[in-house]
Amino acid sequence: MLSLVRRADTAEVVGAGLELAAVGWGSRWIAERLGRPVTTVRGWLRCWSRRAGRAAAVFTSWLVALADDPAAVLPSPAGTAVADAVCAAAGFAFAARARLGMLKVPTWLLVSAACRGCLLAPGWPWGPARPRM
């Protein structure tokens, strides 16, 4: 289990919350589903929504760098900036698993490792640099 910087929850729990938000769930429903305080979940979602556009760009650039055929795995627009960023992160993890032979590594663990646990930390994303694995 890998925690995110400045967060008590693991990357998998936060990632699950972000995925639920991407499909339209609100913070109260996510909190109930994950057994976390509403204020905690609301904090994740606010932080993610502020950086969603930049995060989508970074994860998309990493995906393109790792994929054998980027056009085949680039996610389509998901409808919202939050959903686009979640799709880009998941696409990156898919490409990383395929390229590095890490087929059983969970999506949000790879995402967290690539950004050194700073997914929701101040100052991230750093820019379109290579993933830091």
Distance between the termini: 16 Å
Strand content: under 5%
Radius of gyration: 14 Å
Oligomeric state, counting identical vs distinct chains:
single chain
Please provide a brief summary of the model.
The protein is mostly helical and 133 residues long.
What can you tell me about this protein's structure?
This protein is 61% helix and 0% strand. With 133 residues, it is mainly alpha-helical. α5 packs across α6. It has one domain (11-114). The radius of gyration is 14 Å and the shape is globular.
List the helices and strands and how they pair.
Layout: H1 11-22, H2 27-34, H3 38-66, H4 70-73, H5 81-100, H6 107-114
Helix pairs in contact: 1-2, 1-3, 1-5, 1-6, 2-3, 3-5, 5-6
Describe this protein with a few key phrases:
133 residues; mainly alpha; 6 helices; 61% helix; globular
